[in-house]
C-alpha cells in the first residue's frame, strides 16, 4: 500500500508562482512513474506532468510546458511540482499519483492517488 499526501496549494495571483508537494509513504519504492494531474469543477481529470522514475525523465502537457517543472527528492520520498507564470485556467485541484504498471504515463492509468490540494489563480 502506498499513501500519497499533497500539500502547498493556495490562492495566488495570475503570473505568480506556487510549489505543491507530494509526500509518499508506505510501500513506496521505484514506481514506474510519478504523475501530477488536475481537475476543475465539471471537467475531467487531466494530465499535467510526470516523471519516469528510472529514466529520471519528465513529461508535460502542452498547456503547462515551459511553466511547470517536476522534481524529486529521493531521500524524502517527495515529488514537487513547481508552477510558474500561473494563469486563471490553472485553477484546479491538483493530485499526485504513483504508477507501478507499464505504459500510459500520460494517462490516468495510475495505481495510487493522493487526496489533492486546491490551487486557485485569480486575475
Number of strands: 11
What percentage of residues falls in helices of 4 or more residues? Answer: under 10%
Radius of gyration: 13 Å
- Structural class of the helices, strands and pairings? mainly beta
General shape: globular
What is the CA-CA span between the terminal residues? 40 Å
Strand content: over 45%
- List the uncertain runs: none
What are the secondary-structure elements, in order, as H or E? EEEEEEEEEEE
- Individual helix count: 0
Average pLDDT taken over every residue: 95
Mind summarizing the main beta sheet?
7 strands, mixed
Structural write-up:
- The protein is built from no helices and eleven strands.
- The protein has 123 residues and is mainly β.
- Strands 2, 4, 5, 6, 9, 10 and 11 form a seven-stranded mixed sheet that branches. Strands 1-3-8-7 form a four-stranded antiparallel sheet, with no helix packed on it.
- Strand 5 (46-52) and strand 6 form a beta hairpin.
- The chain is globular, with a radius of gyration of 13 Å.
Amino acid at each position: 500500500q502506498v499513501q500519497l499526501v499533497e500539500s502547498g496549494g493556495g490562492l495566488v495571483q495570475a503570473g505568480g508562482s506556487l510549489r505543491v508537494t507530494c509526500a509518499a509513504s508506505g510501500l513506496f519504492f521505484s514506481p514506474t512513474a510519478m504523475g501530477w494531474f488536475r481537475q476543475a469543477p465539471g471537467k475531467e481529470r487531466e494530465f499535467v506532468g510526470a516523471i519516469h522514475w528510472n529514466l529520471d525523465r519528465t513529461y508535460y502537457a502542452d498547456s503547462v510546458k515551459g511553466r511547470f517543472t517536476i522534481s524529486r527528492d529521493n531521500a524524502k520520498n517527495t515529488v514537487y511540482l513547481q508552477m510558474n507564470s500561473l494563469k486563471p485556467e490553472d485553477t484546479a485541484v491538483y493530485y499526485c499519483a504513483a504508477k507501478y504498471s507499464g505504459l500510459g504515463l500520460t494517462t490516468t492509468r495510475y495505481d495510487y492517488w493522493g487526496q489533492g490540494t486546491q490551487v486557485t489563480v485569480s486575475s
